[in-house]
Each structure stands twice: as C-alpha cells, then as structure tokens.
Design a protein that fits this description.
With 195 residues, the chain is mainly alpha-helical. 55% of the residues lie in helices and 2% in strands. It has a two-stranded parallel sheet with strand order 1-2.
Length: 195
C-alpha cells in the first residue's frame, strides 16, 4: 500500500485532498484567491473543519469571484453571518470582502495574482525533503515576508502561519514527507520505471 503523510486520516475527503490537491501547484487566480480565504477561515480551527465546509463556502461566496464579493452589501454580510454552512465569524467573513478588494488591486498591478504570489518563491515550487512530519515548520522566513507584504497590500487573516499553510496548499512549497507517494521524488522514479 502507498504511504501517505502522517497527518492524513482515513476520511475519504481528507485522503482525496492530500492525494490530489495538497502540494500541487495552483496558477489559476480564482483558485489562489479561494485558498487564501479558506486558509484565513481556518485560523484557530482545523483544516478538516474547513474542508468539510468548502462546498458551502463556494456557494456562499459566489465561487470566490472577487468582482462579485467586493459588491457585497451589509445585508449580504448579515446573511453570511447567519449561514450555518460556513464558520460564522464576523471578522473572518468581512475579511473575504477586504481580501477581494486587495486581490483585485494586486491583479491590476501585476496582470495576475498568480504572477505576484508565485514571485515569493521565484515562480518555482520549493521541494522539501522532510523525513518526518515533526520536521515540517509551521512558518518560516518566507512566510514571514509574505505575511508582511500581504498585510501591506491590504489583506487580512494572513499571519505567517496562515501564509505557510497557504504555500503548502497551493504547491508553492511541497511538504510531503519523503516516504509519501506524493513526494516528487516518487513521481520521478515512476516516470523513469515506466520508460
């Protein structure tokens, strides 16, 4: 049986997320924006909580179309605060609107959000070589820098730990442990054995 990262539970949704998404580079602006908002929603909670609510988040926030989100009225925000399908935290909900404005500004400035955000890793995923989950940091100098820059650009709920988790989620940093079948070293082996 293929080995996975130690943090993965037996939940099919979690397995699917680990196997197909976590650590896979994302370059689409809307998906990058969605993940930034969801990572912010996770603050103080577990990713599993957010993952289970992800579909509800997509419906509630117009599939993370920033152009629609920036036009949200107080009435719409109130409806979101009453929505049991998402985390009903007023500050986190308002931060999605704040972040949508900042996101659109960045996109205008850089041509795409992907161009801006991937600049933090020189447009190349960082592939780490951890042997155990214990070695994986919660934040680093890079996430500190990203957090500082995003706050300066007007984003909220983008602390260093959130930024590090975000980079892992969108594949800017690959933190699959070496024994995990999703670690890039195994993909290289598979492709060379299939030649």
């Amino acid at each position: 049986m293929s080995k996975r990262c130690a943090w993965v539970t037996k939940e099919p949704l979690y397995i699917d997320y680990h196997d197909r998404e976590w650590g896979v580079p994302v370059y689409g602006d809307r998906k990058l924006f969605e993940m930034l908002c969801l990572e912010g929603a996770q603050a103080g909670l577990s990713w599993w909580t957010i993952l289970q609510k992800r579909e509800n988040y997509r419906k509630a926030f117009d599939h993370f179309e920033a152009e629609k989100i920036v036009k949200y009225t107080d009435e719409k925000l109130q409806l979101l605060i009453e929505d049991k399908g998402i985390v009903r935290n007023k500050l986190k909900i308002k931060s999605v609107v704040t972040n949508a404005k900042a996101f659109l500004n960045i996109r205008e400035q850089y041509g795409s959000f992907a161009q801006y955000i991937w600049g933090f890793v020189d447009h190349e995923p960082i592939i780490n070589q951890w042997t155990s989950e214990k070695e994986v940091p919660a934040f680093n100098a890079l996430s500190d820098q990203m957090s500082k820059q995003l706050k300066k650009a007007g984003f909220s709920f983008v602390g260093s730990t959130i930024c590090y988790s975000y980079m892992q989620a969108v594949g800017m940093i690959n933190d699959h442990t070496i024994e995990c079948f999703c670690h890039p070293s195994h993909q290289r082996q598979e492709s060379s054995t299939s030649l």
